[in-house]
Amino acid sequence: MNALTPSDDAQKAYLDELIAKRLLLPLGPPGVYGRGHVFEDVIERFDALITASAVDDHAERMRFPPVISRASFEQSGYLKSMPQLAGSVASFTGTQAEHMQLLELVHEGKDWSCCQTMTDVVLTPAACYPIYPTVAAQGPVPAGGRLIDVYSYCFRHEPSGDPARMQMFRMREFVRLGAEGDVLPWRDRWQERGLALLEAIGLTGANAPANDPFFGRGGKMLAANQLEQKLKFELVYPITSVEKPTALLSFNYHQDHFGSIYGVKQEDGQVAHTACVGFGMERVALALFKTHGLDPALWPEAVRARLWP
Amino acid sequence: MNALTPSDDAQKAYLDELIAKRLLLPLGPPGVYGRGHVFEDVIERFDALITASAVDDHAERMRFPPVISRASFEQSGYLKSMPQLAGSVASFTGTQAEHMQLLELVHEGKDWSCCQTMTDVVLTPAACYPIYPTVAAQGPVPAGGRLIDVYSYCFRHEPSGDPARMQMFRMREFVRLGAEGDVLPWRDRWQERGLALLEAIGLTGANAPANDPFFGRGGKMLAANQLEQKLKFELVYPITSVEKPTALLSFNYHQDHFGSIYGVKQEDGQVAHTACVGFGMERVALALFKTHGLDPALWPEAVRARLWP
Question: ipTM score here?
Fold first, then answer.
């Protein structure tokens, strides 16, 4: 568990409400919950609203299980920047004698990781990860680029009492691959589209906070920060804290990072640029319940009309 | 990879077709695939058909992420019978120096499991597993029992070239909890309902094979086998092999096994009995594509009318 912070009381109070109403079903570890039917229905309706709002984009739908290959994950660079969030999958591959040892350790409540061997898969850290090697394997991206629609459970090992910081959550993403001129304007347009989508369901006042440049270490660091701001921004909304609002949507421009790693090429042989927009589905649902109340039947008519058309 | 068996040629040929049509999108390890939009659409339509066929049962819908708590998994007994199929989740919890070591191992292509610590979650082995502790925590099951509807990705570590034997696949399940008299007839009725559901989509000739009793080791073994046959049966259908048909649905009566382990009680204080019926969603889709062809637009009108009503 994380150390307590001042906002923890509000988070705990909201989590307790969600559990009491059986919107979330606690499974034991912090941040690991089942979803009651009312919660799940809201997720499905918001998912359908995203689909409807982007129908004219004609994205290609692909769906992936919540694991990717360990080999492609190792290539991704994720272990460099966020090793503590990643989840690798291990399994038992031993002999019958080792099986006895495994059962003894479990029986005694001891660590049985010695009886586990790493498998060829890891949990998906973000819904877009399996896209890049998949698209690369299908050949060069045609002129005008490609647009892929993905949706999967993702894992982040950050046990927390904040209901908006789950270890297993769903991310719906659109991923654009092509020339910089295809990718960057598409990503930027989504900031407005994302805001409009949230406003349509009564989540007004979400914004993309301007990160203060960090002056302390001089121009080089400042430039790096500014560059970073151009690469990534988020729409944040207060769920349990106004001071520390939660990111509901995130917009990332990867330049040619993933294109280079996985060999995604443009028609002319140049490395493809990529960008994505991701919706934190559970977070949007939590923002809806926080804003409009725990019973969707009592939500404002305008909001209901958008979600249950 | 498994050793080659005679049916492997047919399996490989079918897998190659599925990949060529982009119905399945290979992610590298055998049995780990993304799903193209046509494949996914069939899964969604069959899921909706199950829902429609069981609408009068008024099952309570719960949805769980593809992990359960390690503690409840250790209680389940799964590690006794099928340790080689289970997937535990590990993460990096080390120091900055250990992070350097991790990156070096990855860079050198070496095993980095030494830099991973077991987390509090494991991958879900079957969709019903999170139900039992969840229902137990909600108090005694009322007279007449409860009926729960679940659906999730499940993991089984059995790398295979058989497209019907995936490492990550979806299982839709109904789980009945209550007195033996509620649970067992409900499970038995589902054998006919399951057959009718498969026939409605043109998967005729599925059957529940009678396992030959094993006489070799005398009466005790025979009795144990017969008992086992009453506890579990499956509807099998030929996908890539007539001799070794694939289980599409499975029907399990757990007696008071899970009730005892997780403390699921009936209203009168007795331990609840449980049973489940599970649909192997990818396997049903694979059976449909094998039977009716790889283009759902060309499937028989009667089948299309049921799936796309």
Answer: 0.93
